[in-house]
Design brief:
It catalyses: [protein]-peptidylproline (omega=180) = [protein]-peptidylproline (omega=0). The chain has helices at 43-49, 143-148, 181-184, and strands at 7-16, 22-25, 32-35, 57-62, 76-80, 94-99, 102-111, 115-119, 129-140, 205-206. By secondary structure, the chain is mainly beta. Strands 1, 2, 3, 4 and 9 form a five-stranded antiparallel beta sheet that branches. A hairpin with a 2-residue loop joins β6 (94-99) and β7 (102-111).
C-alpha cells in the first residue's frame, strides 16, 4: 500500500543538522506514527513521503524554508518584564505566550531590569535538516482518525511524553511535548495545556 493523503504511516527516522549532529531519532524508541496530510511533519518531509511504501528507505535534505522557516530577526523583541507575572526568568528559559497567532514558544535571550528580550523563532529556524527515513508501515485511517485529524489506538507513536534537548520539533512544525518532538511539528499529539507550543512576546507567558 502506498502512502496517500490521510494514510496512517509508521516511520523510523534520524534527523541531523549540517554538522552531522543528531537532533532526534527513533533509534532505541518506538517508531513515529502519524496521519499523512495532517500537517504533523515539516512540509518538505511530508511531501517526500507520498507514494512511498512499507519497507522504503531514503535520505532527504529539507531546506530551512520547507522545515521551520528562515530565521526572522523581527521575532526577537523586548517585552515588559511584568508579562511574566513576577516569575524568575533566566537566559535560555523557554515560555509560552498568547499572541494574535495563537500560542507561540519564546526563548529568553536577555534579562534586564525592566524588559526581557525574547526570541520567538523556532530553535531550528534557519537550519537545513537531513533525514534518514524508513517506512515501517502504511494503513488506511479510520473514519474517527480522519475526523479528529490524528492517529488513535495502540500504534500511536506520540503518546509517551518526555522532553528533548531542543524542546521543539525537528521533523514537524511547532514542537509538542511528545515522544517524537523532532518529527512532530504541527501535530496533534500534544499535552492538554499546550505547555510547549510556541511563544511570541505579546500576552501572558507560562513556563
Amino acid at each position: 500500500m502506498k502512502i496517500t493523503h490521510l494514510s496512517v504511516v509508521t516511520l523510523d527516522y534520524t534527523v541531523s543538522d549540517d554538522a552531522g549532529e543528531v537532533l532526534d531519532t527513533t533509534e532505541g524508541r518506538e517508531p513515529l506514527v502519524y496521519l499523512q496530510g495532517s500537517g504533523f511533519l515539516v512540509p518538505g518531509l511530508e511531501s517526500a513521503l507520498y507514494d512511498r511504501e512499507e519497507g522504503d528507505s531514503f535520505e532527504l535534505t529539507v531546506p530551512a524554508m520547507d522545515a521551520y522557516g528562515e530565521y526572522e530577526e523581527s521575532l526577537v523583541q523586548d517585552v515588559p518584564g511584568e508579562l511574566f507575572d513576577g516569575m524568575e526568568v533566566a537566559e535560555g528559559d523557554t515560555f509560552v505566550a498568547d499572541t494574535d497567532d495563537g500560542h507561540r514558544p519564546v526563548t529568553i535571550v536577555e534579562v534586564s531590569e525592566d524588559f526581557v528580550k525574547v526570541d520567538a523563532n523556532h530553535p531550528l529556524a534557519g537550519m537545513d535538516l537531513h533525514f534518514k527515513v524508513t517506512v515501517q508501515g502504511v494503513r488506511a485511517a479510520t473514519a474517527e482518525e480522519i475526523a479528529h485529524g490524528h492517529v488513535h489506538g495502540d500504534d500511536e507513536g506520540c503518546g509517551h511524553h518526555h522532553h528533548h534537548a531542543h524542546g521543539e520539533g525537528c521533523c514537524g512544525g511547532h514542537g509538542h511535548d511528545d515522544d517524537h518532538e523532532c518529527c512532530g511539528g504541527k501535530g496533534h499529539a500534544h499535552d492538554d495545556d499546550d505547555a510547549h507550543e510556541c511563544c511570541g512576546g505579546h500576552g501572558g507567558c507560562k513556563h
